[in-house]
Structure formats: structure tokens, C-alpha cells
């Protein structure tokens, strides 16, 4: 079945048809590298938050803003950057986003106070806009036969970047190493991406139109009102006045955004596009996979470091051993998975690829929940979980590509990126809340230590499996079969 959106895809403007004469083989690697950067920046501070708190003598509540600031900034700028790229051309917006990311990395790497660090992390939130911009570049610059494959390769860098970030943090901060090292890494990566993008990306005009800046402000406010209590609720208290107030405020603002878009001639986001069956199913799947990703990464990272002598579970792994032995195999596997997933998307359709990835994710989470006493079994399950995440995200841009017109590519992928961010925020909050709520105090020579119960980890892994299962149901029944 072909929709009006599909027809729009089949006949993009001649000015934006990539041709062999203008196609640069470096465009795809450059865009995949940019996606890797944003994923690296998103994840790299997560395992380092306790260390940052210790070295800056800051409470866990305050240091949590190091992660929250980036997420809130990202929710505000991602849809705006996507639309700016569609209207004015992706190259200049990508370079602007990289300059902001570079500035944020520099501030974070040099600052010695929590306030400066939070400010730097907020600027790093500009990197989240790189994903929809990269997908837009691929759509407009690659030959038609290579677009779906290229999108899959770039999107799979999300999983690789997150896994690499966990490994890098473990290596750079082992034995209480200076937390500034992780920001030196993001600084170097941001500088490299800026130079690469400036050299590789062609100077092309955008598709034209206007930018709904008022809509961007309202949407950003609504997303901040939603994500702030999700990320801070476990510290504020889920029943506290700020948490409840923001949860009530968020849907009101987002509803107002919907009314505003319906009455705007050139809206930031076309609600009719978001309501399209395949687009809606893909975005919901992105949310569920985002939730599952943090169930895998946070749950597994904390589990393997649990002192087995005290708790009766875990592997008493150091931060370095956690990174190299448990996280690195899955990260390395993510590298070839992008091209492989891309080929399957072209041959069999993105729907089946997403379905297969989600089913693999369910199996991996079931294994983590039931078979976590043996190191080898645990590593295999983690590798499978990493593969499921990388392949699932590789399929999503191709699904959107089939049902979104060229001028809406950036914004459509921005919404998908936001859904991933929301899912990850919810997953992180749920896992942390479950683990904290079950904490039991153990006596050690250095004093009492509060550690989660084994059942709390099982619950976290089961919830990750449920999230993957919901993504599988969306792929099986929410998407039509004629996707390739």
C-alpha cells in the first residue's frame, strides 16, 4: 500500500537528487562518526557520576544534573536543529552544533566546579541534534540505491557509541582517575568531527520554508517539563510537589503545542506525519528500545561490580574489568553490525530487521534475568543485548524514510531521537529507583555499604525484556509488511 507520503519520497526535488558526480564516499563515514559522537556524549558520564561527586565534593542529587542538563538541552534543540537543517541546509547546522559541542567539551574539561561542569554539559546537548541532521544528509547526498543502507550504518553507531563510552569511562577513570579525562576525550572527538564535517559536507542550499521558532520554544518547554521529573524524581521523591506539578504541566504544554501546530501554516512538526501509522509505530519502538538500552547498560554495569562475598551475586568486578571484560565484546560487535543490518534492511525490509532485533533483545534480557551466575553466560547475554540495540536503531531511519517526505526528514528523525531520549530517561530512572528501593545495608571493614538485592536486578532485566517485547509487537503488528 502506498501513501501520499510514500509518493513524496519517490519524487524528491531534482536539486537534491544525489548523483555519481557529486557523491562523496566520505559522507557516510562522516555522518556515522557524528552519530557516534552524540551517543558517546550521552552515555560517557553515566558510570562516572559517583566519581565526579567524590572529586567535586558534591551530593548525588547535585551531580545528577551533569547528566540531566545535557538531556534537557537536547530535548529543547533537537527538533529545532532538525527543522533548521531542512530549511537552510544541513551542513551549516551540523557545523554550528559541533561548535557548541566543542565549546561544551572544553568548558567541562577545564572547569573545577559543579556549576561550570553542568554548563559545559548543557552545551554538549547540542550534539543530540546531529542524529536527525546526519540522516537528512544521507537522504539527500547518497545515491538512491544506497540511502537505506547508509541510514542503517549511521544509526547503528548509536549502540556502538554508547558501548564505547562505557568502556572508555572505565579505562580513563580506573583507580579513581581524574574525571576530566572523559571530557578530554569528548573534546578531541568533537574537534575531529568538526574538521571532518567541514571538509566532507558539500555546500548545498536547504529545501526552503520558514522555521516555527515559537513552536520550538513551546515544544522544548513541554519536553523539559516531562523529562525533568523523570530524571530527578528518584531524588525529589515521586510523590513530591515539584515532581507531580511538572508531570501535570508537561501534557498541558504539549497539548498547547499541538493546537499551535495545527494553526500554523508551516509548523515545526506536521502532526499528520506523526500520526501516520508507520511513523507512530517507529517512534514508540524507539522509546521502548531506549528504555531497554538503559536496563541493559545500567543494570549490567552495577550488577557485575557487586561484591559477591557480601551479596551472594555479582562478579566483584573492578571498573576496568567491567569495561574490558563485560562491555567491550558487545561494543566491538556493534562495528560490523551496521553494514550487516543495512544489507538486511535492503534485502528483507526494515520491519523484519526491527522485529528480529527486538526478539533477540527479549532473549538477551531473559538470559540476564535467569542466567547471571556464570561470567561467560552473562557476557553472551550482554553481547546479544548490544546487538539488539544496534540493529534495532539501524532499522528505524529506513522505516521513517519510506513514509516521510524529503522536507520532513530532519524533523521526523528529530522526534524519533527525542523518543529515544525519553525512553532512556525513563529506563534510567526506573532502574535507579528499583535498585535504590531494595538497598540492604552490609557491614564492611570500611563501614556500612548499601547494596541492591539480586531480585532488584532481576526486576530491572525483566522490565527491559518487556520493553523489547513491546517493540517486537509494534514491528509485527504496527508496521505493514510491504516495507522494502
TrEMBL record:
InterPro entries, alphabetized: MFS (IPR011701), MFS_dom (IPR020846), MFS_trans_sf (IPR036259)
The keyword Transmembrane is assigned to this record: yes
Pfam annotation, one family: MFS_1
Subcellular location as annotated: Cell membrane
Membrane-protein topology: Multi-pass membrane protein
Domain Major facilitator superfamily (MFS) profile: residue ranges: 27-483
Transmembrane annotation, as ranges: 26-50, 62-81, 93-110, 116-138, 150-170, 182-201, 213-231, 243-260, 280-304, 324-345, 352-372, 378-401, 422-443, 455-479
Keyword Ribonucleoprotein: no
Keyword annotations: Membrane, Transmembrane, Transmembrane helix, Transport
Gene3D superfamilies on file: MFS general substrate transporter like domains, Multidrug resistance protein D
Protein name: MFS transporter
Amino acid at each position: 500500500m502506498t501513501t501520499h507520503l510514500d509518493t513524496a519520497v519517490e519524487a524528491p526535488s531534482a536539486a537534491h537528487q544525489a548523483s555519481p558526480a557529486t557523491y562523496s564516499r566520505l559522507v557516510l563515514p562522516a555522518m556515522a562518526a557524528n552519530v557516534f559522537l552524540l551517543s558517546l556524549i550521552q552515555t560517557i558520564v553515566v558510570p562516572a557520576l559517583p566519581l565526579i561527586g567524590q572529586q567535586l565534593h558534591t551530593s548525588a542529587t547535585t551531580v545528577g544534573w551533569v547528566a540531566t542538563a545535557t538531556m534537557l538541552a537536547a530535548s529543547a534543540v533537537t527538533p529545532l536543529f532538525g527543522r533548521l537543517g531542512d530549511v537552510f541546509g544541513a551542513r551549516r547546522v551540523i557545523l554550528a552544533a559541533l561548535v557548541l559541542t566543542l565549546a561544551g567539551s572544553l568548558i567541562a574539561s577545564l572547569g573545577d566546579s559543579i556549576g561550570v561542569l553542568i554548563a559545559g554539559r548543557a552545551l554538549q546537548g547540542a550534539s543530540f541534534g546531529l542524529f536527525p541532521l546526519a540522516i537528512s544528509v544521507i537522504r539527500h547526498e547518497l545515491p538512491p540505491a544506497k540511502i537505506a543502507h547508509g541510514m542503517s550504518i549511521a544509526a547503528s553507531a548509536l549502540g556502538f557509541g554508547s558501548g564505547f563510552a562505557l568502556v572508555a569511562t572505565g579505562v580513563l577513570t580506573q583507580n579513581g582517575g581524574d574525571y576530566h579525562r572523559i571530557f578530554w576525550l569528548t573534546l578531541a572527538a568533537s574537534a575531529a568531527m568538526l574538521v571532518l564535517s567541514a571538509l566532507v559536507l558539500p555546500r548545498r542550499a536547504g529545501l526552503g520554508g520558514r522555521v516555527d521558532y515559537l513552536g520550538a520554544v513551546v515544544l522544548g518547554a513541554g519536553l523539559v517539563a516531562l523529562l525533568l521529573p523523570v530524571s530527578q524524581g528518584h531524588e525529589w521523591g515521586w510523590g513530591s510537589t515539584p515532581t507531580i506539578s511538572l508531570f501535570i504541566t508537561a501534557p498541558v504544554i504539549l497539548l498547547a503545542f499541538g493546537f499551535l501546530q495545527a494553526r500554523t501554516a508551516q509548523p515545526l512538526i506536521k502532526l499528520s506525519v506523526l500520526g501516520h501509522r508507520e511513523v507512530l509505530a517507529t517512534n514508540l519502538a524507539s522509546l521502548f528500545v531506549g528504555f531497554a538500552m538503559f536496563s541493559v547498560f545500567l543494570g549490567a554495569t552495577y550488577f557485575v561490580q557487586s561484591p559477591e562475598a557480601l551479596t551472594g551475586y555479582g562478579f566483584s568486578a573492578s571498573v576496568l574489568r567491567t569495561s574490558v571484560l563485560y562491555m567491550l565484546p558487545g561494543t566491538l560487535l556493534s562495528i560490523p553490525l551496521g553494514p550487516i543490518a543495512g544489507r538486511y534492511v535492503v534485502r528483507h525490509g526494515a520491519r523484519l530487521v526491527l522485529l528480529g532485533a527486538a526478539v533477540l533483545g527479549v532473549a538477551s534480557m531473559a538470559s540476564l534475568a535467569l542466567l547471571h551466575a556464570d561470567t561467560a553466560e552473562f557476557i553472551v547475554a550482554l553481547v546479544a543485548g548490544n546487538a539488539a540495540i544496534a540493529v534495532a536503531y539501524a532499522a528505524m531511519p529506513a522505516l521513517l524514510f519510506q513514509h516521510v517526505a524529503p522536507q520532513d526528514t530532519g524533523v521526523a528523525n528529530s522526534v524519533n531521537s527525542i523518543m529515544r531520549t525519553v525512553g532512556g530517561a525513563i529506563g534510567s530512572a526506573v532502574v535507579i529507583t528499583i535498585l535504590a528501593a531494595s538497598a540492604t545495608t552490609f557491614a564492611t571493614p570500611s563501614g556500612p555499604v548499601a547494596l541492591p538485592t539480586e531480585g532488584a536486578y532481576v526486576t530491572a532485566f525483566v522490565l527491559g525484556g518487556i520493553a523489547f517485547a513491546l517493540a517486537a509487537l509494534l514491528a509485527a503488528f504496527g508496521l505493514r509488511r510491504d516495507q522494502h
